[in-house]
Design goal:
Bound molecules: nicotinamide-adenine-dinucleotide, uridine-5'-diphosphate
Mean pLDDT: 93
Distance between the termini: 31 Å
């Protein structure tokens, strides 16, 4: 299949592009590089021995997206000008015209705290960007989308494990609402026009890295998420992990999450590509098991042989006690399930961080 991947240079995007190429799909990558490095896709090319035509563009630019999707001359081709810039490496190689069968849509802003401070930027980028992309897809006649949603749409769940039929809650921040709004837009679109095929993938907590250690998670600034923070403590970039609350109603008092290896998550997208009926469907991508912060730290210490200094800090506003998936639907309908355990997640997170203490750096 020929697939357009937005946000392709980012953490989950780069891992998914790699899996797509290895499965024999053709990929065109789009990213505005606002939160990622071009280097990630160069490494994907090196790992797979295949080229990834790259278009530096913003999904909010509807005409640029339309040009990429239709291969309109003068915009997305090798002579691209204006809003669409192709990387020198792939210039001339190909952004082959048209014929896309699906869009896997990762592009978005994802920092929860930042979304509270800059709600307009989040709604404009995530919601506005998705609408522009959908319009361009419609105009180009490409009506299959796989969307990166999040378990955050469940809010504070009424029970765990969480099935897709659980009510969506009230996310505690604009980021979560942007995901919920996009889900609704996609549901409405699929209901209005049966030509659309939409997969809403609700990710639990993606962690780890490709086992090669060549690509991984490279957050800008202080990591918001647990595993990148632990990794940076282990590699000497941070002093200690702050554990955000040890008084939750969980076995050891710390928050419990469903960590999922990013390679398993990436493969979930390949599984979803094969599913078209009904024309809008939600799947949880999680393991079905929850681990506490202390359990995650212990697994990382085991994988790395490093002691991780921790200090207990106040709860982080908006955090919930426990969240893990019921992943049965994805297993039954997509034939997909997570294969990597927590030890493998931490081993690969450490392998990546050790090989790339400063992430992709200034490449
Ligand atoms: P990431 O920040 O590494 O990747 C997102 C990519 O999108 C980046 O490369 C960024 O430069 C690009 N981007 C952002 N806005 C853009 C725009 N307007 N035009 C073009 N490119 C743009 O994040 P990730 O962890 O790979 O997440 C991918 C998707 O999955 C996001 O939509 C995120 O909200 C969602 N998600 C992530 C997690 C997680 O914990 N990582 C959990 C649930 C859902
Ligand atoms: N957490 C923590 N210290 C950190 C980052 C996270 O104790 O520096 C905790 C957080 O409170 C939650 C778990 O680790 O219980 C996972 O947090 P993360 O931000 O990775 O994911 P999310 O909150 O989005 O599920």
């Amino acid at each position: 299949m020929k697939i357009l991947v937005t946000g392709a240079a980012g953490y989950i995007g780069s891992h998914t592009v790699l899996e797509l190429l290895e499965a024999g799909h053709d990929v065109v990558a789009v990213d505005n590089l606002c939160n990622s490095s071009r280097e990630s896709l160069r490494r994907v090319e090196a790992l797979t021995g295949r080229s990834v035509p790259f278009v530096e563009a913003d999904i909010r630019d509807e005409s640029a997206m339309r040009a990429v999707l239709t291969g309109a001359p003068g915009r997305a081709g090798p002579d691209a000008a204006g809003d669409v810039a192709e990387s020198p490496e792939s210039a001339g190689a190909t952004v082959p015209a048209g014929d896309f069968e699906a869009v896997i849509h990762f592009a978005g802003l994802k920092a929860v705290g930042e979304s509270t401070e800059q709600p307009l930027a989040y709604y404009e980028n995530n919601v506005g960007g998705t609408i522009a992309l959908l319009r361009a897809m419609d105009a180009a006649g490409v009506r299959r989308m796989i969307f990166s949603s999040s378990a955050t749409v469940y809010g504070d769940p009424v029970a765990v494990p969480i099935p897709e039929t659980a009510p969506v809650g009230s996310p505690s921040n604009p980021y979560g609402y942007s995901k919920l709004m996009i889900e609704q837009i996609l549901r409405d679109l699929a209901a209005a026009d049966p030509r659309w095929s939409v997969a809403l993938l609700r990710y639990f907590n993606p962690v780890g890295a490709h086992p090669s250690g060549r690509i991984g998670e490279d957050p800008r600034g202080i990591p918001n998420n647990l595993v990148p923070f632990i990794s940076q403590v282990a590699v000497g970039r941070r002093e200690a992990l702050s554990v955000f609350g040890d008084d939750y109603p969980t076995p050891d008092g710390t928050g419990v999450r469903d960590y999922i290896h990013v390679v398993d998550l990436a493969r979930g997208h390949l599984a979803a590509l094969g599913h078209t009926k009904p024309n809008c469907r939600i799947w949880n991508l999680g393991t079905g098991r929850g681990y506490s912060v202390y359990e995650a730290v212990a697994a990382f210490e085991k994988a790395s042989g490093q002691k991780i200094p921790v200090r207990v800090a106040p709860r982080r506003p908006g955090d919930i006690a426990t969240c893990y998936a019921d992943p049965t639907r994805a297993r039954d309908e997509l034939g997909w399930q997570a294969e990597h355990d927590l030890d493998a997640m931490m081993r690969d997170a450490w392998n990546w961080q050790q090989q790339n203490p400063d992430g992709y750096g200034e490449q």
